Amino acid sequence: MKRAPRPRLATAPTARPSAALLHALLAVLLIAFSAAALAATPAGTVITNQATALAGGRTYRSNLVETVVLPVCSVTITPDGTPAQPGQTVDVVLGGTAYLPYRILNTGNASARFDLTLQQDPSSEWTPVASALYLDEDCNGRLDPADPAVTAVDLAAGEEACLLVSVQAPDQGRGDLYISPVAACPQGTSDRENYGRVHLLGGPQLQVDKSMTPTRVLPGDLVRVSLSVRNAGDAPAEPVTLSDDLAPLAAAGARYEPSSARAAKGTVEFSDGGGWTTREPASVSGIRLVLDRLDPGETAVLVFYLRVADDAAAATVRNRAVAEGPGGPAEGTAEFEIAPRYEHFLGPRGNPRALPGGEGSPDDLQEVPYLIAGQTYCFEHTLENASTAADDFDLSVSGLPEGVEGAFYLDPDTPLESPVHLEAGASLDFLFCVVAEDVVPPFTADLVATSAASGASNHTYDRVKEVWPADALAPTKRVDPEGTVTAGSELVYTLHFENGYPIDLTHVVIEDPLDEHLEYVASDPEGSYDPEGHLLRWTLETLPSGAGWTATVTVRVKQDTPDDVIIENAFTVRSDQLPDPVASDPTRTPVWSSQLLLQKEVSPAEVRLGELLHYVLTVHNPSNAAMTVTVTDIPAAGLRYVAGSGTPLEPEQQDDRLVWADLRLEGGETLVLEYDMRVLPGASGELVNVAVAEGTASGSTATARSRATARARLAEGAFLPRRATLVGRVFLDADRDGRYDPGRDVPLPGARLLLPDGTQVRTDVVGNYAFRDIEAGVWQVVLDPQTAPFPPLPHPEALGDGYRHRVYAWGLTVSDFPLAAPAGVIEATRSTSLFFGPLRVDKHLIPLGEGRVRVVLHLVSSTPLPELTLRDPLPEGGEKIFDLGTFEGEKTLTYDLEVEGRPVLTDPEVRWRYP
Predict the structure, then answer these.
(1) What is the pLDDT of residues 416-451, one digit of tens each?
(2) Cβ atoms of residues 198 and 286 within 8 Å
(3) Rounded Cα–Cα distance for residues 232 and 94 (Å)
(4) What DSSP character marks residue 681?
(5) How far apart are the first and last CA of the chain?
(6) How far is CA 544 from CA 472, 498, 499, in A?
(7) Do residues 559 and 593 lie in contact, with contact meaning Cβ atoms separated by under 8 Å?
(8) Would you identify the CATH topology of the domain 597-714?
(9) Per-residue pLDDT tens digits for 144-200
(10) Interior CA angle at 816 toward 815 and 822, to 5°?
(11) What is the distance between the alpha carbons of residues 660 and 641, in angstroms, rounded to a whole number?
């Protein structure tokens, strides 16, 4: 046994003790240090030591010494040995395999991985065919199937493991082989002197060969087993026994085939688990060939068959044969694979194999006499996996005519996903449900289950002999009154249907789910009413073919029903023959209780021919629901609409009417329409304008109407009936609104205007012109562009490029010429708007002159907004912040800025907390 090296020690620096004390403690320190160094102390251990001495009745202590143990790698393999003195000796026959057991020990003080190799001494007389190192996990000195081949091993400090050196001898040769396992540390330290001697024997040498064919079989197949024993030595072997334990094979489902054993030489014997006999028992658990003598080079063969059971599971089956006698023992192994046998069946529920007829027979067909269009019918089926392994099955169907849908279900409410996974021997019950949308010819559905493993298919068939129409029941429902109703109204529903099928309907259930906005009053015949579920129900045991059923239901619209609610109501019928409820056509009853509010105003109250009347229409939606509104104005005779005067929208002129169509008013919203009418010849007395507003709810056909009248009086004798005065103003329109704004717009004096008869005038200092005492009628007024070199703005009376107006002159008639102001004349206010949920923010920039701008922020919200914060970015950087708390309604915020050049319009930001 080699001695483990001592661990290296690292000593921490300490204070130097006195010389006297060192002399006094020297012997004690040497003894303590030697003891610590010799121990295999774990790496990282800190050793402390302090000596104590007595002198002159006083105690003296040395300084404290600390020693840190460093990691040391050291390994030992036993038994040791040299080629001259091998640690062990084993014999091996020609072609045989010898095993040399060893132990490896980590003699260091830390965990380490040791590389393992084999070295052969040059004095060896033969070279092995193969050699390897194995980890002998159970330390039994034999190679077990679970023992792994290794090239390295990990060991903790003080831990050991068992190794096996495997050496396969050649078929020829003699003498000794000297071989040693080598273990090396990562740093290079190794243990190499562990030689063992393998002596190659002469004389008889037994060799066993075993084969099983074919190597891949299915349940039910036969496997041919061939055992042979050969004497590869140079002397006879007598006696020899070649045996095979069949019990492991039987456990895997491969059993001895009776009367199948054959041998040309020797005697075949059998075992049933007890003794051996030449008579073959009913259950064979072992077989052997007994040979009195096997000469050098001679081979004896035993052949027999195994039968794989029909239910044998997929597995790899391995077996070993052993030859015993001089030159032995020897063994041979072989294996074969039992592949899965895949088979499956699809058929009616509880009979997937469609017995007794089997696949494709009448027993594999399900048939129903009729199917009602629109109704779901489900056929029940079973899928069986008769394989010896798990498999996935794809379900498909063919043969369904157009208009028929089919699907697979686990139960009526749970679809069956494909593929279907089934373990070996398992089965699944499922439904195949069909529904025909209309009457179709008789059909047969071909259901197919296809194996994912084998690709094989199995069929079953579902047949429908006749399809009846869905409308033979014809349920109808009527409501009285029809159309729009108000809250609190009573409604009477009439329910009716007839059994138009050639069969009686059994267990008929009629259900009428009432809308939540309805109150149940009564029914005839009386049904059972569930107030919580708002469900009215009648039941009939039988409704004969051709018979009908009628009922009336009285309900009341609840008083709190909001506008624009549509009450839909339908009833359903189901029975044993109609499992899917058949619904009647629904009734639709719009509810609308509010009326539009319309107000019409006119000014002035008295007018002369040629003058303008200004009308204001105010439309208000008092409901809580949005409406699409159309406003129609019917002018009095002698009034003509002034094109372009409508604000905010222009009306469409339809014959003698003005129409504003598709105006959307939200609940509670008010819309104001303004426009002008000119008084023309033919007007007389009281001028009565009638306006009508009609609204349609956004979600229904419910309507609300309103009518308003405005009256003005025509003043008499103001002008001669055939003379007129045409006046107007020429000005630079700064805000381009078409109207003269004193103090902002700029009048243009000296502009020349002409009439077709050559009459011409020039504007005065305030831009006014006048053609007096002209004949009433249509005139073209021309503005001379040489005297007014500014582009005309759009005008209702403008012709061509806008320098000409077509004017109907009667009495006092006004026609202004607004012109585009040159650049630099106007200071336009800049603005932007922000819409975010219920909040609107309008931002305006108003120039104040001398480089100052006023910022105006106007906020509107119809909903309380908690913790509202508005941030307005400044053009030069930074921001203006307004914390408004909980905000609702309207609020205007202002602040002034000093700017250089044209003001920059930035977009404000808002944030609030949702509750």
Answers:
(1) 999 999 999 999 999 999 999 888 899 999 999 999
(2) no
(3) 7
(4) T
(5) 85
(6) 13, 9, 7
(7) no
(8) Immunoglobulin-like (2.60.40)
(9) 989 999 999 999 999 999 999 999 999 777 789 999 999 999 988 999 999 999 998
(10) 160
(11) 13
* CA angle 407–410–412, rounded 5-degree value: 70
Joined tokens for residue 784: 């001379």
Measured CA to CA, the distance from residue 310 to residue 218 in angstroms comes to 8
Residue whose C-alpha is closest to residue 323's, from 336, 333, 312, 314: 333
Q: Which two tokens stand for residue 855?
A: 């910022």
**What sign does the dihedral 618-622-624-630 (CA atoms) show?**
negative
b/e per residue, 600-627, with b = 16+ CB within 10 A? bebeeeebbbbbbbbbebbbbbebebbb
Closest listed residue to residue 719, CA positions, set 688, 680, 754, 753: 680
DSSP 227-273: EEEEE-SSS-B-SEEEEEE-HHHHHTTEEEPTT--EESSSEEEEESS
Q: Please give the CATH number for the structural domain made up of 830-911.
A: 2.60.40
d(CA 603, CA 677): 11
CB 299 within 8 A of CB 332: no
Helix (H), strand (E) counts: the chain: 2, 75
Burial of 180 (0-12, 13-18, 19+ CB in 10 A): buried
Distance (Å, rounded) from C-alpha 763 to C-alpha 273?
Answer: 138
Residue 29 has pLDDT above 60, yes or no: no
477-523 confidence digits (pLDDT tens): 999 998 888 889 999 999 999 999 999 999 999 999 999 999 999 99
Cα–Cα distance list, 318 to 321, 443, 594 (Å): 11, 54, 92
Q: Given its phi and psi angles, is residue 178 left (phi above 0), alpha (psi -120 to 50 degrees) or beta? A: beta
Q: Reduce the DSSP state of residue 318 to 3 states and report it.
A: strand
| Residue 167 structure tokens | 């050496």
Which pLDDT score is estimated for 7?
35
Do 806 and 778 contact (CB within 8 A), yes or no? yes
Closest alpha carbon to 92 in 119, 66, 129, 58: 129
By CB atoms closer than 10 A (0-12, 13-18, 19+), residue 142 is: exposed
Q: Which CATH architecture has domain 206-338?
A: Sandwich (2.60)
Residue 332, CA atoms < 13 Å, CB-side half-sphere: 19
pTM higher than 0.70, yes or no? no
- Closest C-alpha to 553, from 534, 577, 540: 534
User: In 14-159, where do the E strands start and end?
Assistant: 46-49, 52-55, 58-61, 65-69, 75-78, 89-92, 97-106, 112-120, 130-135, 152-155
Query: 602: which strand partners?
Result: 615
Task: DSSP letter for 22, please.
Answer: H
Phi–psi pair at 496, nearest 5 degrees: -155, 145
Largest distance between two CA atoms of the chain: 161
One of 3.40.30.120, 2.60.40.10, 1.10.600.10, 3.90.1150.10 is the CATH number of 723-820, namely: 2.60.40.10
β pairing state of 371-372 and 467-468:
parallel
Is the separation of the CB atoms in 348 and 380 below 8 Å?
yes
Q: Give yes or no for a contact between 810 and 724, defined as CB atoms under 8 angstroms apart.
A: yes
β-bridge pairing 457-464 and 365-368: parallel
In CATH terms, the fold of domain 76-200 is: Immunoglobulin-like (2.60.40)
CATH of domain 344-468: 2.60.40.10
Coil, strand or helix: which one is 830?
strand
Report the run of H or E that residue 760 belongs to, with start and end: strand 760-762
Q: Which fold has domain 473-591?
A: Immunoglobulin-like (2.60.40)
pLDDT-based confidence at 356, cuts 50/70/90? very high
Inter-residue contact 131 to 171 (CB < 8 Å): no
